[in-house]
Amino acid sequence: MTLSTILGPRFEHPVCRIELITRKGEEDDQDEKYLLFATKNVIGLQTFPLDGNPWKHAGLLGHPLQITGMCFREDSGTLFNIGAKDSCVYQWAANYRAVETTTKQGGGDLDPYYCLVEDGRPGWLFHEIRDLFYYIQILCQGTFSPEIRRVKDYVPIDSLPDMMRALGYFPSEYEVENLIVEAKFKVFQRVPSIEIDFEEFFKLYINHRPAFPDSVKKIRNAFRQFARPNQNDEFVINRDDFLDLLNQNGEHFSRELSWYLLSILYGQSFEDRAALPEPDFEFIPEEITLTELLTNIIGVQDMETFSDYSTRESMVSQIATSSESEDA
């Protein structure tokens, strides 16, 4: 079980090395914790606590090709690293103040997180999240209740999975369990919470939703793992094999539930479903192609816009990487 899921620094390559370091506090001040990280060719520092705030880290180019090893001395705040295809040892001085300054520039409350949603705070996604948060309160109070509506700052934690799905993130049952545990205990609480406020809900959504959207290439590769070429050399999945995948693998569905969900995805009306003998899957083609899977089952409306994504760096990562300073 995962206690917490958070976004990490986003650079051209993923983080491959992390190290917890401590900075001695001045006089009676408490020691401060930092996370030293490295990607393929970038080194950086991130402040604690880890909460997905994209302004809490700063990084710069640590090697032109690839970092193969690094070592940090806490007493002097010095980092040594070596790289591929050269015989140089690089020495860096940790600039903790630069990381603290970057964190303050991000602002407080939800201000640092607005850059992680489309069009920021004025955008449609943030308004959808906010409207959904209050709509869930109406559902919990009763849609047709004659009582006066009371707007609160909290919603039940048990409603989190449905809220995530309404926003386009469809977690597995394992991910739902991790989501509920994190919301209830917040890593350190011994007594579980039963409600969550808007700020915590927004952070959970930002940290738990996929960091990168699905791409045609990713779906195509997964499709070909189970498909076979037909007479026209086109990869297809037999209808019965496809149903067996849903009913027997992973977090599988029952055959009745598969029939109900697929009939809705294929646009069968209530009258059509009532006329079909359950479970009858004749409305699904005998051979399912990749296009059939994308358009009718997954529901991709515009294939041109559903293209391979490009790795985009966060605003802080772009600023930090372009810096020519030698302080890490």
UniProtKB/TrEMBL annotation:
<dbReference type="InterPro" id="IPR050630">
    <property type="entry name" value="WD_repeat_EMAP"/>
</dbReference>
<protein>
    <submittedName>
        <fullName>Uncharacterized protein</fullName>
    </submittedName>
</protein>
<keyword id="KW-0966">Cell projection</keyword>
<keyword id="KW-0853">WD repeat</keyword>
<dbReference type="GO" id="GO:0031514">
    <property type="term" value="C:motile cilium"/>
</dbReference>
<keyword id="KW-0677">Repeat</keyword>
<dbReference type="InterPro" id="IPR011992">
    <property type="entry name" value="EF-hand-dom_pair"/>
</dbReference>
